[in-house]
């Protein structure tokens, strides 16, 4: 009977213990679940604190202890024993509720994630043929049901086990062995804690498994969708790609930071080596940036557009190449290209640049957003940095953060003292209320070992820094190994937060505030919210700007179309190439006349000074001919071919420039192209060189021509005489000018122009008078004065009280004798004009000395054949080569924006450029808004 009574009492006690859960209220949200309960009318927080009114314990009325209805419970004498039992029951039951609440909340969260995922999928009706009867979706739902059942079974088993263990422990305790039983139960509680952690880990693994299946199905869906669209029409750009193009257009439009660009983007800022680049890589799921050992690697803003796609690839805005981010070789090439572009953007001794490097990263599961990675904030400059590096970084960072719609991703290194941070003050200046700042604490794995847990708790709760933020996140960006993959880093991060005592058992932050995955979800959500709030305002602003610019253009250039630099450059390019074509349309006669003139201009001085004058002044006909033959051959083998090519090239330049000058006089001429055309012509001429083989070809022709020493007919003779007279007269005119400068103006000029002779000119006139006497006495005088003649001249001048030295006399003699000789040459040419019959009969033995006519005939012949050869080379080869070089120069100029901006200037160009750019931006904004509204 006693045993039956005890059994009934035990059963009733168990029922009353179960009745303890009568007021459970479960509240769940998207990130975590909380469990509120009351114990005998008092809150659990009061029970846990166990103090109030001076710290004394309170005891409450418990209706469930009375077997025959509720009544007040009187404290028994052995109060310690009762309190031990109650505390053990409370601890065990609390674990039960936590387990039950966690399972229920987890199930609801899992169900919500599944519903959100299912709602986020596009219409799959068109996939019925590709996926018959929805087999994959049915399998996925079945997997969810099985996981829910498994979790429920684990919870029921743990619940029954806990209830049985706590009931038996509570009824079997005695006062003597209470301490021993309490320690045993505490050990059991710790065991249950471990089991709960294992259940959570199992739940997390199942969730990750479902996410992986989701990504795989999503990838298959995107591939099938892409294949379907490419078979019928061009793939429509994604929203994030369209938005990124707008930002790129704005970047090109606002290079000087003069315009207020308020479109949202995520600006990643932080101290140097704080881990901001690693955070960006973790969000992009690829190691896309170069690494350095303490060296500044980010030297320019890098705009990374993240988009979802079936393949994990990266691509620069101005390149067609795609880098496969699943291949380490492509990743290495991508990092090298990023480093090369960064260093190329730094010019003029600068360390950092404002030039934006734009790239797109696509892949399964990537959150859509636009991030801008900026150079890290520095407090100390090294000797290899430019003097303005620190200020330049501050100015650049402030500019990007000052955008009222920019999301500031403030990166703080958790492994260093918070007081050493430079970026927090800068962020606080730009966003004092923290309405668009997200704080990220990196390297928390190191912080857990090195830093005070209370300081970390304060940082992540927003109580350590005066800076405010929308949210606070903790991430792990790696283990300090450069070769770790993103998958390894993410696994390390997840393992750390699962096992960390600081982040799991002490409750520093909520679960949704850790890991890079949760961070990317939060940033993407905030990014698109701001995009939807601000995009239409920016479109209206550009619409107004476009209207103002169009009005200004109509008022200033009513009859012209808005042509930007690229269009103007193309027009100028066509005109220049047309002028090159006209070179081949110049007649052969005109080419030969121009080449003849240029050749004689280049060769005349050598012919007179090195060939004709030395031979003619030799004193005899035989020596004249011998000397001429020797010198002509030497000349033809060495200097003549090179000089001929030089003359040909200068003639080609002259004719081309002449054509360009004529084009300026055309009624359709547009002077806006003048600077560009002149620069292209100058650069092309500087690069152009005549073909080397042309010299060898000319050498053979010229040697063969000079071998002919006999004038063949009267017409050639007359031409040679005329050529000789013209050439001698030209030299005589030059000599007369020299004499005029040496001796001063004549009597008539001095009187009419009020000029007088200088002392030197007077002295030279006295010397000239003495020299004229010598030439008068000896009409065939040699070109040099003898010693006796020099002495005689000096003595005669001394009688006139004029002192001169022999060098002074020789300097005066040279032009005086040359004029005398040239006048004799003109006389001989005149005598030889009618002597062709005697020459043809007697040859070199002719009574009249006409060797100089024969010499100039030979020179004339070699010039004629050379001009003909050069003309053929110009038409057949050199004009085409020049055309090719001009095209190369134009291609180089077309790729050099600075060169085009320098050569194509003026209000007309700048206004057209701005109008075209604003029009493009506004059209892209409207296209993006339409697509955004359709997505809603």
From TrEMBL:
> How does the UniProt record describe the way this protein sits in the membrane?
Single-pass membrane protein
> Which parts of the sequence belong to the Dynamin-type G domain?
260-536
Q: What is its main location?
A: mitochondrion
| SMART domains (alphabetical) | DYNc (SM00053)
Please give the superkingdom of this protein's source.
Eukaryota
Annotated compartments = Mitochondrion inner membrane; Mitochondrion intermembrane space
Q: Name one GO molecular function term.
A: microtubule binding
What does the entry give for GO biological process?
Answer: apoptotic process; endocytosis; intracellular distribution of mitochondria; mitochondrial fission; mitochondrial fusion; peroxisome fission
- What are the coiled-coil residue ranges? 175-227, 872-931
Give the PROSITE patterns listed for this entry: G_DYNAMIN_2
Q: Which Pfam families match?
A: Dynamin_N, OPA1_C
Q: Which reaction does it catalyse?
A: GTP + H2O = GDP + phosphate + H(+)
Which keywords accompany this UniProt record? Apoptosis, Coiled coil, Disulfide bond, GTP-binding, Hydrolase, Lipid-binding, Membrane, Mitochondrion, Mitochondrion inner membrane, Nucleotide-binding, Transit peptide, Transmembrane, Transmembrane helix
Q: What is this protein called?
A: Dynamin-like GTPase OPA1, mitochondrial
């Amino acid at each position: 009977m006693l045993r039956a009574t005890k059994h009934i009492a035990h059963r009733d006690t168990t029922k009353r213990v179960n009745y303890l859960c009568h007021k459970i209220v479960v509240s769940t949200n998207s990130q975590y679940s909380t469990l509120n309960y009351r114990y005998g009318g008092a809150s659990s927080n009061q029970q846990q604190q166990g103090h109030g009114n001076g710290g004394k314990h309170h005891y409450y009325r418990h209706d469930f202890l009375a077997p025959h209805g509720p009544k007040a419970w009187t404290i028994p004498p052995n109060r310690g024993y009762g309190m031990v039992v109650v505390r053990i029951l409370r601890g065990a039951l609390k674990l039960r509720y936590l387990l039950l609440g966690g399972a229920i909340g987890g199930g609801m969260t899992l169900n919500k994630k599944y519903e959100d995922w299912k709602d986020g999928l596009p219409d799959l009706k068109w996939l019925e043929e590709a996926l018959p009867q929805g087999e994959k979706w049915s399998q996925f739902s079945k997997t969810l049901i099985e996981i829910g059942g498994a979790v429920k079974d684990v919870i029921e088993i743990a619940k029954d086990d806990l209830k049985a263990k706590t009931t038996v422990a509570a009824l079997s305790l005695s006062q003597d062995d209470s301490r021993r039983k309490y320690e045993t139960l505490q050990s059991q509680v710790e065991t249950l804690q471990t089991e709960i952690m294992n259940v959570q880990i199992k739940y997390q693994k199942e969730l990750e498994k479902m996410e992986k299946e989701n990504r795989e199905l999503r990838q298959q869906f995107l591939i099938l969708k892409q294949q379907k669209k490419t078979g019928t029409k061009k793939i429509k750009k994604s929203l994030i790609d369209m938005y990124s193009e707008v930002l790129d257009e704005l970047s090109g439009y606002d290079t000087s930071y003069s315009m207020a660009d308020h479109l949202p983007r995520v600006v990643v800022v932080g101290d140097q080596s704080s881990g901001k680049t690693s955070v960006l890589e973790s969000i992009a799921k690829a190691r896309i940036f170069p690494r350095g050992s303490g060296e500044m690697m980010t030297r320019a803003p890098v705009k990374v557009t993240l988009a979802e796609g079936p393949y994990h690839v990266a691509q620069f805005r101005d390149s067609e190449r795609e880098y496969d981010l699943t291949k380490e070789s492509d990743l290495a090439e991508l990092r090298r290209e990023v480093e090369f572009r960064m260093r190329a953007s730094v010019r003029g001794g600068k360390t950092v640049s404002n030039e934006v490097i734009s790239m797109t990263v696509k892949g399964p599961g990537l959150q859509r957003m636009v991030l801008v990675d900026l150079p890290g904030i520095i407090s100390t400059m090294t000797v290899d940095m430019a003097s303005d590096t620190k200020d330049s970084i501050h100015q650049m960072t402030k500019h990007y953060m000052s955008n009222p719609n920019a999301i500031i991703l403030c990166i703080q290194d958790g492994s260093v003292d918070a007081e050493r941070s430079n970026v927090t003050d800068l962020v606080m200046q730009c966003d004092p209320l923290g309405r668009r700042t997200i704080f990220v604490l990196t390297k928390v794995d190191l912080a857990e070992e090195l830093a005070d847990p209370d300081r970390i708790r304060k940082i992540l709760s927003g109580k350590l820094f005066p800076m405010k933020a929308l949210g606070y996140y903790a991430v792990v960006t790696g283990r300090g190994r450069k070769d770790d993959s993103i998958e390894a880093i993410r696994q390390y991060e997840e393992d750390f937060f699962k096992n960390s005592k600081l982040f799991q058992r002490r409750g520093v932050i909520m679960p949704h505030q850790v890991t890079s995955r949760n961070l990317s979800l939060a940033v993407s959500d905030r990014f698109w919210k701001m995009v939807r709030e601000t995009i239409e305002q920016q479109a209206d602003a550009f619409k107004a700007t476009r209207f103002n610019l169009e009005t200004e253009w109509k008022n200033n250039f009513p009859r012209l179309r808005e042509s930007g630099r690229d269009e103007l450059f193309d027009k100028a390019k066509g005109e220049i190439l047309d002028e090159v074509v006209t070179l081949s349309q110049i007649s052969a006669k005109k080419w030969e006349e121009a080449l003849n003139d240029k050749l004689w201009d280049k060769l005349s001085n050598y012919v007179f000074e090195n060939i004709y004058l030395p031979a003619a002044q030799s004193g005899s006909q035989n020596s004249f001919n011998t000397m001429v033959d020797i010198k002509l051959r030497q000349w033809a083998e060495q200097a003549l071919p090179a000089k001929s090519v030089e003359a040909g090239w200068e003639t080609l330049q002259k004719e081309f420039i002449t054509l360009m000058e004529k084009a300026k006089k055309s009624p359709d001429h547009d002077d806006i192209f003048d600077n560009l055309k002149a620069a292209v012509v100058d650069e092309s001429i500087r690069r152009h060189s005549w073909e080397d083989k042309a010299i060898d070809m000319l050498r053979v022709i010229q040697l063969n021509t000079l071998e002919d020493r006999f004038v063949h007919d009267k017409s050639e003779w007359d031409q040679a005489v005329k050529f000789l007279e013209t050439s001698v007269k030209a030299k005589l005119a030059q000599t007369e000018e020299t004499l005029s400068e040496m001796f001063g103006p004549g009597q008539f000029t001095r009187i009419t122009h009020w000029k007088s002779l200088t002392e030197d000119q007077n002295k030279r006139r006295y010397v000239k008078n003495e020299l004229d006497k010598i030439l008068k006495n000896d009409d065939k005088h040699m070109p040099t004065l003898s010693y006796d003649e020099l002495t005689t001249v000096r003595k005669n001048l001394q009688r006139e009280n004029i002192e001169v030295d022999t060098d002074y006399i020789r300097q005066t003699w040279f032009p005086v004798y040359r004029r005398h000789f040239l006048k004799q040459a003109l006389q001989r040419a005149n005598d030889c004009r009618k002597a062709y019959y005697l020459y043809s009969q007697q040859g070199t033995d002719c009574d009249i000395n006409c060797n100089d006519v024969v010499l100039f005939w030979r020179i004339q012949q070699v010039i004629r054949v050379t001009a003909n050869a050069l003309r053929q080379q110009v038409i057949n080869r050199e004009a085409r080569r020049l055309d090719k070089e001009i095209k190369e120069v134009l291609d180089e100029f077309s790729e050099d924006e600075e060169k085009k901006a320098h050569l194509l200037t003026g209000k007309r160009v700048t206004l057209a450029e701005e109008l075209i750019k604003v029009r493009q931006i506004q059209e892209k904004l409207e296209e993006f808004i339409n697509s955004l509204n359709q997505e809603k």
